[in-house]
Amino acid sequence: MTITDYSRFPRHKPCRTKIVATLGPASDSEEKMKELIQAGVDLFRLNCAHKSLRENEEIIRRIRKVSQEQGQPIAILADLAGPKMRLGELPNGSYFCQNGATVRFVRGQTSTQPETLTTSYEPLLDDLKIGDRVLLADGTVTFQVVGKKIDASSQNRMLDEVECRVLQAGVVRSRQGINLPGVQLSIPTLQPNDIENATEAVRLGIDFLGLSFVRSPQDILDLRHILIQAAEKNVGSEFWNDLIPEDRSLYYPNIIAKIEKQEALPLLDDIIQTADGIMIARGDLGVEVDIARIAVLQKQMIESCRYWTKPVIVATQMLESMIEETIPTRAEATDVANAILDGADACMLSAETAIGKHPVEAVNMMNRIARETEMILEKRSLIEKDCRIKTMNIMNNLTLPEAVRVSIAVCDAAGQLADTVSASMIFVATQTGRTALNLSKMRNFVMTVGTSSSLTVLRRLCLYWGVIPVGNVQSDPSQMLTTLVERAQERDYLSPNDLVILVSGIGTISNNQNVIYAHKVS
Predict the structure, then answer these.
(1) In angstroms, rounded to a whole number, what is the distance separating the alpha carbons of residues 53 and 197?
(2) Average pLDDT over residues 318-329
(3) CA dist 257 → 110, 215, 264 (Å)
């Protein structure tokens, strides 16, 4: 696999919003992957809660093979499972909890009485305090802790128990997930299986690694330390084909912090700055916080990612009815559109493509909604003015390195120039992807092509809003322009007399940090 395999422009102009599709039994064959890519998928997601990356190795090979055959960079996002808490086995498999009834949590894996519950999370009884809430069945059943009997000095800890009162009635079932909003957990975010999968992610050349249940920036730093250590041991892996020694951050996956814990919200800006991007995981987050706050929190998180120039993925239940149906509900279509209007870089499909009956149709639908929504965005001049104000705020943020602020300023100037001269296309030459990300966050509606000599960088561009990744091996600006223009003309992206803009990123061209070129197509 070489960079020349990805040197052509896509046959059809893609939508600017990137689409993440979760792979599963309904979609992990080569033929289905090909259909999904043609329907508009930019990133494939692997859920490590179901299969480890070592077990997914064959699927990873398929993704790379299909990507090469399609001549299109496709990124891989692997989701670490994190400390998932589940109920143990119930005597009859389920139990109806009545309002006001009393249930008890005890130690162990299997309960002998319906109203006595166990859990896979061993420290649960120690972590809970009187007044804490315990949510089960995706938040539909709610308990409150009203009493504890814990004797740490006793030889028989199996007699310990936590007494709860049912606040919201409903049926609980064996192995259901448990949520503890606001409870300080003693268990670390990274579990042994997460560390193993993170190490495998480096060996397998995974592009993005989702860190579940992030509670603080330290969780991200801990994972990055593990990735760096793994990278030092895995140089030369068959999955690594284009290392750039000058930038060690390309040796291991970008970290996507999944925001799904209430504890993460007060530290959101610090988490965003520390991570390489975030995922708004509305499933668990909607259980952790009042569901009425989810829409507002989504807007706030997207706004923060824009300020800190980080990509953001909106996930969970986006087109969930399409697991069974061929078209989504009107509310779901509106939800996808609103996420795009908020400023999301990517929208994610989970069960819709992993186990759903209509995975390709779900991607096609998301693509259609994105295109329609982006047409509205393009016409909203007030948003363009708002973007300019936000860009100035970012450039004036003295906590950012000077090189980053210079790059943002150059990207802003390039976008304004492209708009002023009615340019047909912006080419962004980038060694690490940072300049392309800066331009992406400007939300310019001039078609933007990110070009790099690194496959790793090209795949990272798959997450950046509005950026089309195209491989390039030229370093001289004039040769680069000539080559990219010729390739764009082959696909009818450009016509004679069109104007194009080339932005050279930091370190791309010797002795030049940031340069803007304007070129008229002959």
Answers:
(1) 6
(2) 96
(3) 33, 10, 10
